[in-house]
Sequence to fold (1299 residues):
Amino acid sequence: MKTLAELAALRDKMKDKVALREGTGEKRIVVGMATCGIAAGARPVLNAFVVAINEAGLTGNVTVTQTGCIGICQYEPVVEVYESGKEKVTYVKMTSEKAQKVIEEHIKGGRPVKEYTIGEIKH
Amino acid sequence: MIRSHVLICGGTGCTSSGSVALKEALASELKAKGLDEEVKIVMTGCFGLCALGPIMIVYPDGTFYSRVTINDIPEIVDEHLLKGRIVDRLVYNDTTVEVEEGAHISLNDTTFYKKQKRVALRNCGVINPEVVDEYIAMDGYQALGKVLTEMSPAQVIQLMKDSGLRGRGGGGFPTGMKWDFAAKSVSDKKYVVCNADEGDPGAFMDRSVLEGDPHAVIEAMAIAGYAIGADEGYIYVRAEYPIAIKRLTIAIAQAREYGLLGKDIFSTSFNFDIQLRFGAGAFVCGEETALLTSIEGNRGEPRPRPPFPAVKGLFGQPTIINNVETFANIPQIILKGAEWFASMGTEKSKGTKVFALGGKITHTGLVEIPMGTTLREIVEEIGGGVPNGKKFKAAQTGGPSGGCIPASHIDTPIDYDNLIAIGSMMGSGGLIVMDEDNCMVDIAKFFLEFTVDESCGKCTPCRIGTRRMLELLTKITNGNGTLEDIDHLEELAKHIKATALCGLGQTAPNPVLSTLRYFRDEYIAHVVEKRCPAGVCKNLVSYEIVADKCKGCTACRRACPVGAISGEVKQSHIIDKNKCIKCGVCVTKCKFDAIIRK
Amino acid sequence: MNVNVKINGVSYSVPRNATILEACKAASIHIPTLCYLKGLSEIGACRMCLVEVKGARSMVASCVAPVNEGMEIFTNTPAIRRARKMNLELILSDHDKNCLNCARNQSCELQRYCREYGVEDQNYFTGKVNEFRKDNSTLAIVRDNNKCILCRRCVAACQVQQKVGVIGVNDRGFDTHIGCAFEKNLGDSPCILCGQCVVVCPTGALVEKGQTDDVLNAVADKTKHALVCTAPSVRATLGECFGMAPGTDVEGKMVAALRRLGFEGVFNMNLTADLTIMEEATELIERIQNGGKLPLITSCSPGWIKYCEHYYPEFIENLSSCKSPQQMFGALAKTYYAHKMGWDPEDIVFVSVIPCTAKKFEVKREGQSAAGVYDVDYAITTRELGKMIKRSGIAFDELPDEEFDNPFSIGSGAGAIFGATGGVMEAALRTAAEVILQKPLEVLDFTEVRGIAGIKKATYKIGDFELNVAVASGTANAAELLDLVKSGKETFHFIEIMACPGGCVNGGGQPTQPSYVLNNINLREVRAKVLYNADKDLPLRKSHENAQVKAIYDEFLGKPGSHKAHEILHTFYVKRGK
Fold:
């Protein structure tokens, strides 16, 4: 390592990897991972969110975590997005593909993907 | 893709309580459950709450598990790491913070951490100390890069002076001034030495930094080398710190590999490298001149000052010696500025100080607090108070060189000068809490026994004087003392303080002088009434069975290890005082409070 | 450059690099010291020299603290007096206080300070007292750690000045004591017995192995013939045992005292010094001419010989095979003189008085028994002679000057200067030059090899030949010189080495002087002056012109280097381990 630029580049690359430990981000994506969720395919969904957040370089701002059973087992996999100062958004019957869209539109764009939310699906 | 980090403390405390086995069990369980690609295990340095180890923290949620065992691992993996359900029974419960039913507070919200300000310890428990990249991710080596490319040595020294940083090893000498002296000493060869020979009983601040954030020390030493014009550094670390030695060895090798140590660092003409030297366990080698003598290959003994090391130090060359914690502050002072650092603390003591809490306190462990925090905040809030409903009596700071702070001074803001004013000293940061069951004469004797044992034997007052003090204290605690002995003890203590060769000798009488100052009545009780008020000094204690209360259950008789208790079933028992060894087991066995200690 | 200081309120201007102790000395203030020896032991350990300095946090050890501009020093406050006294009380609390039977009673520095500081209660502090085993294991030196105050002057002498380093500090805290590594006996260590530790010891912890009663009893034995000879430097120092100033020549009184002690013959070792020169100069010329092992190194100093055998065995072949003057004397006494007197050598008790402790070892060496019995029976130090004279009720200072007995009474000036570093070299040069040139020298003073420098080098042109010589005293200096020779950087034909710094005048058997004398007077120089003055004033200044030496060759040995001379006057050396 011979220059400060090299050092800075390494720092920036590594920062994402330890950002997980900085505590909760501004936005939290919580994936229901109880037995019901896992049976309904929650794990690929969880992984899809983790990968996408990483690829988008959003690890510092967005936390992906799991939670237990929320009580709406028929709608699993359930994913909730929390954002400070805003109502939580609950997505149901999630898939990896849907996850991509949530990242693009909701997390990056700030517009919840209405058609995946519990309100829409119930109807 | 990693979605969760599990941090396991790899400090000495948690290592002794089994954190390495824990890590292995977790790794194999993760693999078995197919989570090894999603969850990363990170061995870190010390979190500070050593009494609760082994400690494990799960991110991103920051769940803080304490006293985790191997048997808990499958549950943590199944429930928490897979299903996201926190294992409640293992979560550290801070009873002083109100949380909603069923909710958990994160680590940083516990009272233990909330009042802390982690500067020297900022990376301890956060990064993997064996991976230099993680240190770099936390802005590591940016400070070194900054001084080498943007600052002159004089500017670095001025910054250190402006920050107000004072030596954390005990003396509290202004670091910038020390560097300035060494910078102004003219020589082709200069040295930077890190004093990592932490020797105060119960103190482990430096160990935690070395184990948790070794690169911070290495970076700071290089900065110091640049500031004074040195190209060689030594870290003198106790051989009793194997984990610290291992991590330092790894860190130095990584820094060399990255070109952060060695020749032409950051393509400048600055060269710097570091060697390790191991101390063999002599307390006196923590004294700077003895430490240098030891590095030189001689019997570790202090030498007279002046000449000070900054003028004539290691191998006769200008040398600065700073303590581990002092160094650990420096990279951040460079990056965040002198004003940032000086904004913390009191008028003459800037920044934070790490303390090792021990003794009669709920949370034993390491805490880092801004200078000026009161003893009350440390004991009652951060430390969780004195356990078992006992009353706080005094706190001992500064180890065998320090003194005690009585309850009457509990609201004293802790800084260098206040502690000296009340007859103690900051020392390296040991803080031992005592309650009403501690005999202050016995405490003084305990520390003096240590000093007598560790005296190097070079100068007359320390070699013979401390021994004579101990003999007088022993006489007093045995109940054979007189009032003249107390005067004699005090006279001798003052003599040693005024005449001993080195700092250790000069401060060795402090525990006696400060207990004489605040607890003279206890000394007098020992010699006049032949009574130990706290009931600690065995020769002055006797046990008796109150006949009216004794039910004759025989519990005490059966427990007595020397057969000193006799009595028939259902008849009141008697203790034979000639046989009694005053171990006190009978008291703990009696269900009827029938045995009293006098 | 000077700085201004105030000592006890009075202003002084003192050199900038002075210590407080030196500044006070210049102001006629005596500050007690126990551990401090200028240039040798500057460790600030005993805490006797404490003074108060305005603004200092604690008391200051004046021996090692430099003066500063404007410094205000107080040497005699109640606090200082109490501190010094208390340190003495502490030392006494762990000290064998049987002063009456101590070898250093009345010359003990601790005792003196206790008296000066009014230590009335020598049991002011009580408690555990260390009990150490006395180390009696060598032929020359006895260590009694019960008398040791841990000033470490002996350690500095052994490690720094002599580079022998067989003693050091063992254990720590209250158990600290001086000893050999792994608590070995001194006798089992590669100690060279030079006795430099003894002459710097302030108390009775280190003394020579005393043989005064043995000698006095031998003298009283009427079935024996007790003969004595005195080494060149003894006359320059013996007076110190009787309170005379260092540098007093007491040759006449010394001879008178020995005669009054009852010796049948009182002889002058300067004569065998001359004899040594005859043999050694011959050996030197022979080695140079016949391509023998060079450099030739002198062999008069038994401490040096033992050092060479332990630490530089590769130089054993370089050593002159000549016995030391003491051994030559004993050998002649028991052969030549015994024959002359018609005595059985076994009936002779030959005593030498020497400034040396190592000679007590030398007398028991192999190859030192020309007549089948030991050449020398007792080697006693200057200190022991002083004690014998006192014990025998002889009023030394009232004695008349008397002369040595024939046929061993004459010594040349060359023999006299044997007692100072460079003396053997100069004596040998006088003789060798005249032997080679076959004519008298115009100037007899070889000043380049004089003086107290640790290492001296010179080149002398003798005819066409350039003779390179070197002189070292103190075995640390010897080691430095030998390393230089070993490295091949410099070559010499002839080297003189004395184990003790300054030579025999500063030998391990010489009278002890307290640290305030050692620190303020250059004892080596002052004592050596006696010898050089004697040389200057003597009509006879060359060994080869000593008539008594010639007579010994004519009557007995033949010529220098003869077979007979080799039988009587030469010896051999052995390699010893480290």
About this structure: Chain C has a mean pLDDT of 96. Chain C has three domains: 2-76, 92-208, 213-569.
